[in-house]
Amino acid sequence: MTAPQVLAGRGLTFQYQGAQSPLFSDLDIHVQRGEIIAVLGPSGVGKSSLLRVLGGLQAPARGEVTLDGEPLLAPHPRVAIAFQDPSLLPWLTLEKNVAFGLDFKRQPRRDKAERAALVDEALREVGLSDFRRAYPSELSGGMSQRAALARCLARRPEVLLLDEPFGALDEVTRREMQALLLQIVADYDTAALLITHDIDEALAVADRIVLLGGAPASAIGQWDVRVAQPRADAIEELGQMRIEILQALRGAVRRPRKDIQTCALTASLAVAC
Amino acid sequence: MTAATQVVSSALGSATSRSLDAGLKRAALGSLGVGLLFVGWWLVTDYSAAQGSFLARFSLARTMSALAGLLADSSFWNHVGVSLQRVAVGLGLATLVGAPLGVAVGLSKTLEAATTPAFQLLRMISPLSWMPIAVMAFGVGDRPVYFLLAFAAVWPIVLNTAAGVRGLDRRYLQLASSLAATRWETVRRVVAPGIVAHVLTGVRLSIGVSWIILVPCEMLGVTAGLGYFILDARDRLAYPELMATIIVIGALGYMLDGAARGLQNRWARQN
What we know:
The structure holds two protein chains of two kinds. Chain A is of the alpha/beta class. Chain A is 36% helix and 22% strand. Chain A has helices spanning 47-54, 94-99, 112-125, 141-154, 171-188, 199-205, 235-252, 257-269, and strands at residues 5-14, 24-32, 36-40, 62-67, 70-71, 79-82, 159-163, 191-196, 208-213, 218-224. Chain A is globular, with a radius of gyration of 18 Å. Chain B has two domains: 1-48; 57-270, MetI-like (MetI-like fold), CATH 1.10.3720. Chain B has helices at residues 3-47, 60-71, 74-107, 109-123, 131-138, 142-166, 170-178, 183-194, 196-217, 226-235, 239-270. The chains are: A alpha/beta, B mainly alpha. The interface between A and B is medium-sized, with 23 and 19 residues.
């Protein structure tokens, strides 16, 4: 690929305060425009921490994160983060939740009409235009997660960081959300980095899969998924890759056996794409 | 209507009527309790007390007729208005000082560690102990009363607000920082609306405290208010009026608490 790296982390090492050893070390990762990277790995390997470091929410012990070549030291208006929990503010309507943060001082200056137009478009993109006056308590899990995505989109980010945002959803809703993510990346030409522990989810959406493993964690494998969307028909080709990823996961994870089995189980329970 | 929606709405309907039944039962039991209180009063002052005895001065029957008289008298309503206004001013001052202070204490662990023992110490001193100092500092009149009421009402607000800030969902704070919010934006847009329920709890407790200490506060150097009226009734030997005022104080306090509770529930329902 020749597209420039939008967000890049080089030599990233992260250690919790008071921890004996780093969670991950010397990690290189980058994401380009129009590309979805899935970061896979067993629970506790440091995927979410990596996302927090890439998003500027936490500082790495060593290494640096750059956005279009410029060092990124704090959360940036052009980088949007969607968490596993939609984190909608219960006292705001859906519309106001999506608009939340657009008028913050560190965001680009936009007048009221511009902000309203961005919110309208984001709501349309995720299919929630009819629910703009609803409160979060009135929304289903899938709708809440759509709203959280709309909040990211309203800011027209160049990079979308997604921390297992579909993890808590049922299978059908998760499929819908994956399709929506693909559509968003295509429509907005965004760079997206998706943290997931579900191999099938990674295979369904990602252009590139990065596998984290070991302690301290590092990238123990990388796969380019050169299968066109929709991938429902490419079961055979993806199936082979799935076996490779599972084997790599089993071979390199220095975790108790129980954890590896849980991870493999998650993958085998999910319906093949 | 489809069968499914019919089932849902009839289930909702019976749930509503069930909660209505439970509410009615509660209200009936509550009224019975208040009724028994009055029966007890009547037994002591009307039924068993001898004519012209000390207890008979506080007779329920005479109190009720005095109450009817007072309620028809505009000057009595003036006393009620003055008392309510004092509570409102005291509570307003307490909220203005207490809520921001509570936010600061909730946000800063250092400030919390530095202030907790001092606050607990001040909180345990009866506000009435400050009365002589308040009069010396603010003179005679409304101002020392405002001060004492605010001083009594501020602690529940500070402590509840601080607890609200500490209990604030960390995900909301994480969201704010992911959106590159400044500290002030986080406080104004996430912390403040996120702790309203806690502040309302504090305000409700403060209303109770203020109302309780209002009467003794009004027994000093003021010329209007329910506390003043009680002393005035005593001086005029108008015991039925004194008792009627006590009933009014209880009823008003109950209503104030109910209003605060209503406000709290409304906020909770909305979220």
